[in-house]
Amino acid sequence: MQLGPHIQVILLDIEGTTTPIDFVYQVLFPYARKRLPSYLMQHWDEAQADVALLQIEYTADMQQGLQPPVLDSSQPESVIAYLHWLMEQDRKSTPLKSLQGKVWEEGYASGELKSQMFADVSPAFAAWREQGKRIAIFSSGSVLAQKLLFTHTEQGDLSGFISGWFDTNIGAKREAESYRHIAAALDCEPREVAFISDVTAELEAAQQAGMQTFLSLRTGNPPQPYAEAFAQLTQFH
After folding, report:
1. Which of 29, 54, 82, 188 is 20 to 30 Å from 93 by CA-CA measure?
2. For 197, phi and psi rounded to 5 degrees?
3. Is the pTM above the cut of 0.70?
4. pLDDT tens-digit profile of 5-56?
């Protein structure tokens, strides 16, 4: 992994980059799906901001001719049905990710969840910090979920290495403008940021913004279109 000498920040995706895809799909997502109903029932009033965003998303789904389950945002059971449908679509929905993060927070606090990282993540973080590089995260998972993931890892608490956290509130991961916003938030130019992801469409958007990019080829990652157009890595070191 050859970083340009001008690179100040290493911006990381999570799923398929720092964390095995299997952990996300076989542990985190099933955990959230199973516990979302009880969480909503217990925290209905606190969840209203997310529910309001779900209503907006549902309206857009209907306008696009999709067929989600009917959403009555005054009824927890109806909201849960729509959330489950969004999960089945693997939708990168901001309110869904927000609610999942709150469910996972309880799981990490109880000790039921312990996040998995690839073996090279912790030593790479230490090496990058020694080199004076900053580390930031850009994931479709909420900032809360990101912080929980890196705090409660099998390698210990890695959250202290990270100086920036970004989710889809800053923009979609496949839009170049999102990466420009991230660079501005990090007080640097896009050319001073290297972005690593397992999704070529995200790398293309980051390149359009002016960032250096690397395609993550971790074990278990699905093939990506136009993979040969990007610098590739199987390990951070």
Report:
1. 188
2. -150, 160
3. yes
4. 899 999 999 999 999 999 999 999 999 999 999 999 999 999 999 999 999 9
Q: Which residue type does 66 have?
A: L
What is the Cα–Cα distance from 179 to 195, expressed in whole angstroms? 9
SS3 per residue for 128-188: HHHCCCEEEEECCCCHHHHHHHHHCECCECCHHHEEEEECCCCCCCCCHHHHHHHHHHCCC
Residue 113 CA, distance from chain mean position = 17
- Domains in the chain: ranges and CATH: 9-19+115-233 (3.40.50.1000), 25-110 (1.10.720)
Question: What are residue 164's phi and psi, to 5 degrees?
Answer: -150, 135
Q: Which of 182, 175, 120, 111 is nearest to 148 (CA)?
A: 111
Token duo for residue 148: 């929980």
State which amino acid sits at residue 181: H
Q: What is the pLDDT of residues 106-124, one digit of tens each?
A: 999 999 999 999 999 999 9
- Provide the pLDDT for residue 2: 80
DSSP per residue, 12-42: E--BTTTB-HHHIIIIIHHHHHHHHHHHHHH
Number of helices (H), then strands (E), in the chain:
9, 6
